[in-house]
Amino acid sequence: MTIKHLFPPAWPTLNLDFANSKSLDPRITFSRSSIGTYVDADGIIQTAADDEARFDHDPVTGESLGLLVEESRTNETHPSTFTSASVASSWAIVNDTYIIPDQILSPSGENTGALLDFDTANTDGVTFQLNLAANTPQVLGTRVYSAWVKPVNTGVGTFISLRFQGAAWSWPDGGTSTRGIRFYFDTKSFEINSSPASSSNKLAFEEYPNDWYRISIPATNSGAGYVSIRANENTAGNCYMWGFQSEEGSFSTSLIPTSGSAEDRSADVCSIEGDNFTSWFNQAEGTFVGTVGSRSRLLLSSVSTGPNVYQDTTYSFYSNSESYGASFNLRYEDQSQVLVNYSGWTSSIPMQNYAGAYSAEGVAGAWEGNLGNPQTPLNKPLQDDLSHMWIGRNHSVTDSGVQRISRLAYYPTRLSDEQLQALTS
């Protein structure tokens, strides 16, 4: 036996290489009724116009991560960045003279990073606070708070501290107390009320060029809690801040810039429909192969719009430990019919290789060269009138998170288990 048997018997009928081409196949229809931001190959945050697809990159390595597809979100905090211009503000600021705008190159490559002068305020014995007030849109419900921060002087023990005040807070780990959350720049770690944070707290950071970090803090507030950044709790040196965001949800999405009011980012809608779909898709059997990031999904349907669009067939790659772990899921008639789970999945690999195959005999899948559970028989025959595919949508009516899709290929035949492993290794 030679290695030849590991290669598919034919070329894929659909081959979308978003990461390398940084363009959309002409068969794809794409829309987004707002601007959107993304990271370019130099790690700089750029802005895409309405209806312009975004191709994201790792901010440190510059690696192309492929097509960025996000759900709709609103940044309720304004301004997101303090500038020299006077704008309406959702911040309640005590002694704003200690906020000095336009002091350093920000992650957007512009001189818009603001200095928070904690040292001078503490030396002057002056109260200096930036507060997001209780019972206002930017602190109500389940939200994630994020900002790009940078220390003025790197060194041991430098940190930025945010205080979540009031009795109304609850947290992903089940806690319900007031919390002071510090991010230490030197150790790249969080503390909660002076104790090391754990993974159950769901705190996150992402590195950017020039010592910038985006920190993200998820929390739920029933109304009476507020968020405060205070000089007397930031005693380990000054800090730059840029791009503050408060958005409803449990994870952060790309920056939504604000100035004098809250701003929306519309959902990315990416589809292949009609003849552009049926020309390459085999209703009876086939194989999807992809390199995707977390929460990446496909939706295949026999209708284009309306309440039944999510009632039809979904072939989904899941790579999100908070929901399905890693799996290939066949779903139809609004029920999960076949779920192929991949053991050994880890969230430490940001982009991962998946394959999922279907035929009348059942469904099989592979992940990073590992087969999922054995081929699972179907509960009922496959649907035979599919005519639409949405890239980055799921079976529910809700939107689908943050997705990065590097490549997606389709073979109009059920590839062998060995071929599934070879294509994902």
What is the helix fraction of residues, given as a range? under 10%
Radius of gyration: 24 Å
Q: What proportion strand?
A: 35-45%
Q: Report, as a whole number of angstroms, the end-to-end distance.
A: 19 Å
Q: What is the strand tally?
A: 33
State the shape.
elongated
User: What structural class should be given to the helix and strand makeup?
Assistant: mainly beta
Q: Any low-confidence stretches, pLDDT <50, length ≥5?
A: 306-311
- Biggest sheet descriptor: 8 strands, antiparallel
- Given the structure, what is the number of helices? 4
Oligomer: single chain
Q: What number is the mean pLDDT? A: 86
Q: What would you note in describing this structure?
A:
It contains four helices and 33 strands. Helices cover 5% and strands 42% of the residues. The strands form seven sheets. Strands 1, 5, 6, 24, 29, 30, 31 and 33 form an eight-stranded antiparallel beta sheet that branches. A hairpin with a 5-residue loop joins β3 and β4. The protein has 425 residues and is mostly beta strands.
Quick recap:
The chain has helices at residues 18-21, 118-124, 275-278, 417-424, and strands spanning 14-17, 29-31, 36-39, 45-48, 54-57, 64-70, 73-75, 91-94, 99-104, 113-116, 129-132, 141-151, 159-165, 169-170, 179-184, 189-192, 195-196, 204-208, 212-221, 226-230, 239-248, 263-265, 269-273, 286-292, 298-301, 314-320, 325-332, 335-341, 352-359, 362-367, 370-371, 388-391, 402-411. By secondary structure, the chain is mainly β. The strands form seven sheets. Strands 1, 5, 6, 24, 29, 30, 31 and 33 form an eight-stranded antiparallel β-sheet that branches. The chain has a seven-stranded antiparallel β-sheet with strand order 8-11-20-13-15-16-17, with no helix packed on it.
